[in-house]
Amino acid sequence: MIMIAPSLLSADFAALGAETAEAEASGADWIHVDVMDGHFVPNITLGPPIVKAVSAHTTLPLDVHLMIEAPERYIADFAAAGAGVITVHAEACVHLHRVVHQIKELGLLAGVALNPGTPAAVVREVLEDLDMVLVMTVNPGFGGQAFIPGMVRKIAEIRGWANDVNPQLRIEVDGGISAETAPLVAAAGADVLVAGNAVFGRKDRAGAISEIREAAQRSFRS
Ligand SMILES: O=C(CO)[C@@H](O)[C@H](O)COP(=O)(O)O
Ligand SMILES: [Co+2]
Q1: Does ligand 1 come within 6 angstroms of the Cβ of 7?
Q2: 3-219, what's its fold?
Q3: Where does a divalent metal cation bind (predicted)?
Q4: Rounded distance between C-alpha atoms, residue 65 and residue 83, angstroms
C-alpha cells in the first residue's frame, strides 16, 4: 500500500502543532520531519525539542529524516523525543551497519537515505537489515525543488534487490513529489511518498494527499 508522508518543512513553522494535526486529519500516514544541521546540508531546521513538541499533536509515526553529520550522536535523543522512523544518510555515516542497528535496538524503524549522486550499491550490504531506503529525488537541503527523473532507475534497482532479500522493504522518495511525479516513482517500486510543497502549499490538504496517493496507487509495481 502506498503511504503519504507530508513534510513539515513546507508547513507554517509558527504553527507546527496545528499543521501536523491537520495533516493527520487530511489522511497522512506518517509525518515527515526534516532535520538539517548546516553542515551535511546548507540549511538549519530543528532538533529533538521540536520533534517532542510536534509528537504531542499527532498519533501518527514521526518519520525523522536526519540530514546531519555523524547522526549516531543524536539517535537516542530523537527516539526519546518521539520518532517512530529514523533515517540517516549513508554519506553521513562511517559505520553505516552499526548506526542502522543502533536505531533498531531502540525499537524504531530504520531507514538509510541516498543523495542523488550516491549509487544504490551503497545500501546493498545492509539491505536485509533495513526497514526502508529513502531515495532522494532532489539534492537535500530545501523544499520546493524540481524532481530529478534519473532517480527512477535507482528506485527500480533497489526494488529488484529487495524482492530477493527483503520483500517487506519500504522505499521512500523525497523531493519534488506531486500527483504528476508520483506515478513515475510508484511504477519503479516506491511506496512511501514524501510531499512538502505539494501538500502544505495547497489549502486543500486532504485533496492534495488523496490525489498523490491515487496517482501512485494506480501505477504501483512491487
Ligand atoms: O528532505 C527534504 C529536503 O531536503 C524534503 O523532505 C523536502 O521537504 C521535500 O519538499 P518538496 O520537494 O516535496 O517540496
Ligand atoms: Co526529507
Answers
A1: yes
A2: TIM Barrel (3.20.20)
A3: 32, 34, 65, 174
A4: 10
Give the tens place of pLDDT for each residue, 136-172: 999 999 999 999 999 999 999 999 999 999 999 999 9
172 lines ligand 1 (CB under 6 A): no
The whole-angstrom separation of Cα 98 and Cα 83 is 19
Structure ipTM: 0.99
Q: Select which of 29, 34, 37, 63 is catalytic.
A: 34
For residue 159 the three cell numbers come to: 526494488
Name which residue sits closest to atom 4 of ligand 1, judged by CA: 140
Distance 177 CA to ligand 1 centre (A): 8
Give the integer Cα–Cα distance in Å for 211 and 75. Answer: 34
- Is the CB of residue 204 less than 8 Å from the CB of residue 16? no
